[in-house]
Every structure is written in C-alpha cells, then in structure tokens.
Automatic annotation (TrEMBL):
Pathway: Isoprenoid biosynthesis; isopentenyl diphosphate biosynthesis via DXP pathway; isopentenyl diphosphate from 1-deoxy-D-xylulose 5-phosphate: step 2/6
Protein's recorded name: 2-C-methyl-D-erythritol 4-phosphate cytidylyltransferase
Domain of life: Bacteria
Role noted for this protein: Catalyzes the formation of 4-diphosphocytidyl-2-C-methyl-D-erythritol from CTP and 2-C-methyl-D-erythritol 4-phosphate (MEP).
Site (Positions MEP for the nucleophilic attack): R174, K227
SUPFAM superfamilies the record matches: Nucleotide-diphospho-sugar transferases
Site (Transition state stabilizer): R26, K33
Gene Ontology process terms (BP): isopentenyl diphosphate biosynthetic process, methylerythritol 4-phosphate pathway
Coiled-coil region list: none
InterPro entries on file: IspD (IPR001228), IspD/TarI (IPR034683), IspD/TarI_cytidylyltransf_bact (IPR050088), ISPD_synthase_CS (IPR018294), Nucleotide-diphossugar_trans (IPR029044)
Pfam family for this entry, one: IspD
Organism of derivation: Streptomyces phaeoluteigriseus
Gene: ispD
NCBIfam families: ispD
C-alpha cells in the first residue's frame, strides 16, 4: 500500500560510460571495432541506444578511438537518439582501463550511479541495464550481470613456448563460476576511487572494486549481451538482430 503523505523518492540519475576505443584486433582487419556495422548501423550506435533506452540513464559518455572523436560525434548526430539523454565524446587510451578512466574524468557532477558498458556488447537488452541500475540503487556499491558457464574451465600453467603444451593445474567447480558481462554498475564514488587507487591492469571495472575489499554482487545477465570479439560473434550478432527485426515487424 502506498502512503501519499511520504515524499516521492528522487528520480534515479545514472550516467553510462561506453569504452569504444579498442581496435578490435581479434575481429580481424578493418575499422575500429565499435565503428564496424551491424545490420547497417555502427556497433557503437547499437550500444548507445541500448543504454539510452533505460529511462534512468540521462547522460552517455562515449570514449572514442584516440583519433576518432570527431567521427563519433558526427555518428551520434546522424542517428536518432533519445532527446532526454545528453552525450559527451572523449578520446580514449591505450587500454580499456585507461579509456574508462578518461570517460570517468569527463563526467559532470549530478550522477550518483555510473554504468560502464562495452561498445562491443551492442545487443544488451534494456531489462538487463535496468536490473543493474536497480541493484545499485538498492545499495550495492558494484553490480555485474553474469551467466553460468556452459563449458568446464581449467586453470593451466601457461605454455613455456608459444603453442606448446599447457599443464592443467586445477578444475574450478563450475557451479560457482560466472561469465561476467556489461553494463557493470557502480556507486560513482566507489568506481572513481577504484580507478584512482588500482594501478595494475584488471580486465573489468568490478575487479578493481574487488581490490578495494568491497563486495561486488551479481544479477542475471542475458545471452544477447555477449561481446563481439571474434568473427563468429559478428555472425551471431547479425542473426540476433535479424530475429529482433522480424519479431518487431520491420
Ligand atoms: N584501449 C581500449 C581498448 C578497448 N576498449 C573498449 O573496451 C571494450 C571491450 O574490449 P575488447 O572487446 O577487448 O575490444 P578491443 O580491445 O577492441 O578488442 P581486441 O582486444 O580484439 O583488439 C570495447 O568496447 C573496446 O572498444 C577501449 O575503449 N579502449
Ligand atoms: C569487461 C568485460 O567485458 C567483462 O567480461 C571483459 O572483461 C572485457 O575484456 P576484454 O578482453 O577487454 O574484451
């Protein structure tokens, strides 16, 4: 039962940082990965639309390839995006971690929740974005969407020579493992502290928060939030998009 005498809670104001400065070496030769097209539209635009589809996201900071900021600004201008969302474009760095930090540095005051989302995950559903935001709003300092694994995972001793045999050192219990996706969501002050404190390279932002000794919580991810990394991922992404367009009737 709602109590009309209570003041309404303040609206959620989340900002999204989208690192899009990677080259896409594993995808093969071509334009920077985020600028390659999916269903005729740059992957980055799909990712921006996916985040801006959440009514809580009022600002999107795109971290562009280092010499591609002007091109990214033109792309954002050329594609229909929600009016209620502001966009900022900054050039990125050498690593994903550096690029995210540059995006965080460009955030104006006024957003207490920050999402970090790979441009390389263009098809994340808005329900996943909203679930991450909601878990941060409820008090978690860091939230990751994740899925159980289909494969058994082995920990190995890296090969002594390239292509050489890799002895297995352990088989972690699969039921306790999760494959982590984005958007990852954070209380802003926590994420800023992590990026100011952690100096060694970590492959995701939540991992940096773990190094501060804070708890990161997992919410259900989505199979369509996969990362376009290798050529076969692009085939899958085209198929998912075609299925969506068929279902939506356009
Ligand atoms: N210097 C970098 C490297 C990566 N990214 C971004 O981080 C996300 C996840 O990285 P990944 O999938 O590894 O992209 P790439 O680095 O482009 O891929 P690769 O390692 O195959 O070159 C991508 O949206 C990518 O654009 C970034 O902003 N800045
Ligand atoms: C952040 C991430 O997408 C979570 O799975 C992943 O760690 C990025 O790794 P990459 O090697 O930089 O693509």
């Amino acid at each position: 039962m709602s109590d009309d005498s209570l003041p309404a809670p303040p609206p959620v104001r989340a900002a999204a940082v989208i690192p899009a400065a990677g080259r896409g070496v594993r995808l093969g030769p071509g334009a920077p990965k985020a600028l390659r097209t999916l269903g005729g539209t740059p992957m980055l635009i799909h990712a921006v639309r996916a985040l801006a589809a959440s009514r809580a996201v009022s600002l999107v900071v795109v971290v562009a390839p280092p010499d591609g900021a002007a091109e990214v600004k033109s792309l954002l201008d050329a594609h229909a995006l929600p009016d209620r969302t502001d966009f900022v474009v900054v050039p990125g760095g050498e690593t994903r971690q550096e690029s995210v930090k540059l995006g965080l540095d460009a955030l104006p005051p006024g957003h207490d929740i920050v999402l970090v989302h790979d441009a390389a995950r263009p098809l994340v559903p808005v329900d996943t974005v909203d679930a991450v935001i909601e878990a941060v709003r409820e008090g978690a300092p860091a939230v990751v969407p994740a899925l159980p694994l289909a494969d058994t995972v082995k920990e190995v001793e890296p090969a002594a020579v390239p292509g050489g045999p890799e002895p297995v050192v352990a088989t972690p219990e699969r039921a306790r493992l999760r494959a982590v996706q984005t958007p990852q969501g954070f209380d802003r002050a926590t994420l800023v502290r992590a990026h100011e404190t952690v100096t060694d390279e970590v492959t995701d932002d939540a991992g940096m928060v773990e190094r501060l000794g804070l708890t990161v919580v997992v919410v259900p991810g989505h199979e369509e939030a996969f990362k376009v990394t290798r050529p076969l991922d692009l085939v899958l992404a085209e198929a998912v998009l075609a299925r969506r367009r068929l279902n939506d009737g356009f």
